[in-house]
Amino acid sequence: MAHIGIEPEDYPGPLVDLDYISEKSFPKSKKKAKKPKAKLSPCVKRTITLARIEANREKATFVDVRHMLVAMLQEGRNFGAIMMDANGITIEGIRKTEWNGK
Predict the structure, then answer these.
(1) pTM across the whole model
(2) Which residues contact 88 (CB under 8 A, 6 or more apart)?
């Protein structure tokens, strides 16, 4: 991804600990297995927090796609933000766009 300006050190590893997921995590017995917890990167955690703030700003009762898109652009250090910026998508543009009649 270096050819598009993203350095490997910006993304230290997978978001899910693949070593944790194994056959033991999904036993064949009838007992309910505990779901493995995904590990979120600091970038993803910041983006989710920003999306919640954006939803609160709009007095929304839940976080939806437009909140996540705005948050990705605000966070700025993610592939989605780079691609949206390269295609001229702005926070103001997302906020002005009608989403399912809203």
Answers:
(1) 0.60
(2) none
What tokens were used for 81?
Answer: 């933000």
Q: With the CA atoms of 34, 36, 40 and 8 taken in that order, what torsion angle do they form, in degrees rounded to the nearest 10?
A: 180
- On whether residue 102 sits in a domain, the answer given is no
Exposure string of 66-90, with b = 16+ CB inside 10 Å and e = fewer, is bbbbbbbbebeebebbbebeeeebe
Q: Is residue 25 part of a domain?
A: yes
Overall number of domains in the chain? 1
Per-residue confidence in pLDDT tens, the chain, 102 aa? 455 555 556 555 544 445 555 555 555 666 666 777 788 888 899 999 999 999 999 898 889 899 999 999 999 989 999 999 999 999 999 998 876 655
Do 37 and 46 touch, CB atoms closer than 8 A?
no
Q: Which residues span the domain enclosing 15?
A: 2-96
Tell me how far apart the alpha carbons of residues 85 and 48 are, in angstroms, rounded to a whole number.
19
Residue 58 maps to a domain: yes
